[in-house]
């Protein structure tokens, strides 16, 4: 079977979607090998029925992603907030320093499915930068690749720190140091802004930039969820969807949380080729803080749709133990990897 065209695949197997057609998905979609840059799929009338793949929410996932080979794990990325190397400048401000190395790297985004990524520090998404409003941020970008790259931060900074061609771009083999004050507080984003922009972002040059308010927030279990997609055959359509890059990762191994404990998730949409992504949690509602720039919630809901580069902070608590799904509410995205779950203890 050749490279996967997602829409022809879904039409061919008549998938009704994971929400209303779990049985159809169970028998139809079994990603298992890498062929020509796409996903090969075992069919109901062709795969070995003696094998017992992982089954979650109607999906059967054959094999496992080698996180050690990738050099990063979605389970670590979920709670890995990087405060940098901390010092104090002559004005008494907290300084947080980082080194980002732009490097080309093949990564496995689903079992047996590999993608030629462009990365910051060998991972997709890149490191989650965390600071407090008013901190001074210094990031040295070391470009080891044959392409120019940059880091463009969503937030306040001078034009020279904008991370665009001619203003904060590191050419092949060069370095550039970004130096700015973290503001405003909120759930923010950074990404390469070198042209062609779609290629530099889609290949994996992006990450979360979390700026805490000076007065802080209530204690919570915090997570970062970067919604992304991968066009594995470069036809302008994504064949894989995920949060934190690995399809079905948090369905195969659900995120463990404690009941009655406040959960805070920073959710970012950096999906290329699709103008809208979304997140829906089961059996619960959440407080929505749009862009994370307020201390009081803007809305109480269970589903939000997000445009490209849109990001929000959500807070919720599960009062009962159990297994609870969360996923995109574009069912095609669910079928192709954006399906996750919480295991509430």
List keywords for this structure.
mainly beta, 345 residues, five-stranded mixed beta sheet, globular, six-stranded mixed beta sheet, Immunoglobulin-like
**Order of the strands making up the biggest sheet:** 18-17-20-25-22-23
Kindly provide the radius of gyration, computed on alpha-carbon positions and rounded to a whole number of angstroms. 20 Å
* Average of pLDDT: 88
Largest β-sheet summary: 6 strands, mixed
- The class by helix and strand makeup works out as mainly beta
Residues in helix, %: 10-25%
The CATH architecture of the domain at 72-212 can be named as: Sandwich
CATH topology grouping of the domain at 72-212: Immunoglobulin-like
Structure write-up:
With 345 residues, the protein is mainly beta. The protein has a domain at 72-212: Cupredoxins -  blue copper proteins (Immunoglobulin-like). It has seven helices and 27 strands. The protein has helices at 6-13, 22-28, 67-70, 74-77, 197-202, 249-252, 331-335; strands spanning 31-35, 38-41, 54-56, 59-61, 81-82, 85-88, 94-110, 113-120, 128-132, 136-143, 149-150, 152-153, 169-170, 175-181, 186-191, 206-212, 221-230, 240-243, 255-257, 263-269, 276-281, 286-290, 299-301, 303-307, 311-316, 322-327, 339-344. The strands form seven sheets. Strands 18-17-20-25-22-23 form a six-stranded mixed sheet, with no helix packed on it. A five-stranded mixed sheet has the order 5-9-16-15-12, with no helix packed on it. It starts with 5 loop residues before the first helix and ends with a strand. The model is unreliable at 9-59 (pLDDT under 50).
